[in-house]
Design brief:
The chain has 182 residues and is mostly helical. It is 75% helix and 2% strand. A two-stranded antiparallel sheet has the order 1-2. Helix 4 packs antiparallel against helix 5 and helix 7 runs antiparallel to helix 8.
């Protein structure tokens, strides 16, 4: 059970980052509206919602799914998806600023196209190229311990004899005793 909680916490790290970014985007949109004398931009007003759903909510759902499946997305896939989110968000932000100032915004659509393309590629990479979690290798018992146990000597006694002979360390002996994996 502890292992599953550790996996979930590890997978939620990007979601925590997007939570902070979403909160900052929301605060920025509110302050921007106040300091531009109540002139609003739909793009800036919706920026935090985009970050909420495409960033935070996506990574929370992905963390839950990957934890249940005991899989881990590759870092490059997460980086490509996050780059798409950031590119699209930058396009929304610039579009919003230009809307308020009344400037031409014909080139902004390329930010949005690139952002959507990167998010789609990242999503495909996340879905297709995830890898299983690396499991810790359990300590293998030396052959001499297995032979002694088969002859009727208790495992703890055989392991302590190996420590006295210097074949294994005390830490290895304690790990073997705890694992009981003959």
């Amino acid at each position: 059970m502890k292992n599953r909680h550790t996996l979930l916490a590890k997978n939620l790290i990007p979601a925590y980052a997007y939570t902070a970014i979403t909160a900052l985007a929301y605060l920025f949109s509110r302050f921007y509206t106040v300091f531009t004398h109540d002139e609003t931009s739909e793009a800036i007003s919706l920026l935090w919602l985009f970050l909420l759903f495409s960033g935070m909510a996506f990574f929370v759902l992905a963390a839950i799914v990957f934890t249940i499946a005991k899989r881990q997305p590759r870092r490059i896939a997460l980086a490509v998806y996050s780059s798409g989110v950031v590119t699209f968000a930058a396009g929304l932000f610039i579009r919003g600023v230009l809307e308020i100032f009344g400037a031409d915004r014909s080139l902004i659509r390329y930010y949005e196209i690139a952002g959507i393309a990167l998010m789609a590629i990242g999503f495909i990479l996340i879905a297709v190229f995830s890898q299983p979690y690396a499991q810790k290798k359990t300590m293998q018992w030396p052959k001499s311990v297995k032979i002694l146990v088969r002859r009727g000597i208790p495992a703890e006694t055989a392991i302590r004899a190996l420590v006295k002979c210097g074949e294994i360390t005390q830490e290895e002996a304690e790990e073997m005793i705890c694992s009981r994996g003959i």
